[in-house]
Amino acid sequence: MNTATALARSRTAWTALATVVVAIVGPRVGLTPDEVASLVGALQLVIGALYVQDKRARKR
């Protein structure tokens, strides 16, 4: 597995990227800090669920 594939499958990398994007873009579109934090939390849950689903699919 090459580095790009490993990063694409890394939950930590996607979570970090989503956090940075929301932290930068959120205030620019008028989100409050609480809304940004809630959005980051929701994205972390979605990314985690997708990661678990992908892992289960690979076991089959």
Q: Terminal Cα separation, in Å?
A: 19 Å
Instruction: Please give the share of residues in helix.
Output: over 70%
The geometry reads as: elongated
Please give the oligomerization state of what you see. Answer: single chain
**Low-pLDDT windows of residues:** none
Total strands: the figure is 0
Please provide a written account of the structure.
There is one protein chain. Helix content is 85%, strand content 0%. It is mostly helical. The protein has one domain. The longest helix has 27 residues. The two termini are 19 Å apart.
Brief summary of the model shown:
The chain contains 3 helices and no strands. The protein has 60 residues and is an all-alpha fold.
SSE arrangement:
Blueprint: H1 3-8, H2 11-28, H3 33-59
Could you name the key traits of this structure?
60 residues
